[in-house]
Amino acid sequence: MSLLETILQPGGLSVLFQPIVDLREERPRLWGVEALVRGPVGSNLERADILFEYVRRKRAEIVVDRACVTAILDAAMTLPASLDFAINVHAVTLSRDPEFLGFLTDAAEARAIPLSRLTVEIVEHAPEWADLGLAEGLDALRHMGIRIALDDVGLGQSNYRMMLDCKPDYFKIDRHFVKDSHRDFYRQAVLESVAQLARRFGARVIAEGIEDAADRDTVQSAGIELGQGYLFSAALTTPGLASSELGKETRAVWDTAEAGRQPRPWVRTECWGEV
Amino acid sequence: MAKRLLIVDDEQSILVGMKSYFRSRGYEVDCATEREEAEALISHVPYACVIADLCLKAGHGADGLEVVAYVGARQPQTPVVVLTAYGSPTAESEAGHLGAAAFLSKPQPLEHLAEVVEALVDGRA
Predict the structure, then answer these.
(1) Full set of structural domains in chain B with CATH
(2) Count of A–B CB contacts within 8 Å?
(3) Given an 8 Å threshold on Cβ–Cβ distance, is A47 in contact with B44?
(4) Considering the entire predicted model, what is its pTM?
């Protein structure tokens, strides 16, 4: 059996969720999660960067993106219903798989997950995908109530052209610009610039890779309201997330909502997808 | 820090034996059974040396040469040793043209392979 066949088997992929927090809160509050897919434990493909490099070299993005969606939605069934989540999708999948959106819709419906809880993060985009119908795919996602995030802003193909092509709801600024920003005037300038640009787009910025409090403070000072990184939490399994400090907070909110009581305002106004 | 090797071969028994042997000589060892897996590793992990079988079952006959070319593009300082049971002057010439540091026939005594690898890693070859 090839590696590709192995990861496409049921259980071949596992899912972790990394918290995204609202930086404006005095105490970090869970605002949403990014679903992160891993390959078989103990294999080279357990590392996400190697897994997806392998997938791209096999030119198997479309079939693997579907497998990832299935694995993520299965895992997301145990998340609190108030918690929204992001999934990563290759640009080539949106451009070249005309059935993908129907597949996503059916898979979410089968699990009773409203599409409005989803944000799609566009990864490995390149100008040629824009020419091949990426814009149409993005429009269709929006009509389905799904938000768009542009991943790795500042690096590679996540450039000004892609900002125009994607018109994202969220700019995910790459960790390269976040790490050690507290002592780097130039990184601070980039962070402030992206925050300002996002505001002009009517979008919000999520700072990736926040690992210490000084960088968190710098990101906040730049006007960025959302962040993720080891300072707040590593990527966790669903049970791990539920038992984490951040997760317990959300669980309590979920329980409150389930009991028919009015959820606290931040749940209604700050959840992913309800900006 | 231990030097890291990548061994590319589609036969698990060969990978297991070579991995065990090179680890006993102080190397960290990654293994790949497919060309694309090897290329994904080479994209993200720095290696002191790559040992690649010329022909992989899942491939199209000369995947080892593609690995040589890929290493040359992504990690130009990393030497590649090509192993094959089906060597030919043409394949050897092409491997050399693509930048392979050594071209050895299989089976090859592990002690000799290790000498070649160590010479390349230490810059003696």
Answers:
(1) 4-116 (3.40.50.2300)
(2) 34
(3) yes
(4) 0.86
